[in-house]
Amino acid sequence: MAKVTVEYLTRKKQVIDWPDDEMEDFNYENLQCNLDPDKAVDTGAEFEICELKVNGKDHYF
């Protein structure tokens, strides 16, 4: 039996209540630190495959 390892991206949406008094420090890094996949919802059933290995070796279609 082949062992298939796949790394993929999916789309999620999350609403964050960001304090108004912290908006002056709002930046990409702060936003990224506050993302929580457990609180996000899937926004579609499409996936983008990033990496695929079959039996430990890179595989391409």
Mean pLDDT: 95
Major sheet: size, sense and barrel closure? 3 strands, antiparallel
Distance between the termini: 19 Å
- With strands numbered from the N-terminus, the spatial order across the biggest sheet is 1-4-5
Coarse shape:
elongated
Put simply, the count of helices is 1
Describe the structure.
- The protein is 10% helix and 31% strand.
- With 61 residues, it is mostly beta strands.
- The protein has one domain (4-58).
- A three-stranded antiparallel β-sheet has the order 1-4-5, with no helix packed on it. It has a two-stranded antiparallel sheet with strand order 2-3.
Quick structural summary:
The protein has about 60 residues and is mainly β. Helix content is about 10%, strand content about 30%. The chain contains 1 helix and 5 strands.
Question: How does the SSE layout of this entry go?
Answer:
Blueprint: E1 4-9, E2 12-13, H1 28-33, E3 41-42, E4 48-54, E5 57-58
Antiparallel strand pairs: 1-4, 2-3, 4-5
Task: Please describe the structure with a list of short key phrases separated by commas or semicolons.
61 residues, mainly beta, three-stranded antiparallel β-sheet, two-stranded antiparallel ribbon, 1 helix
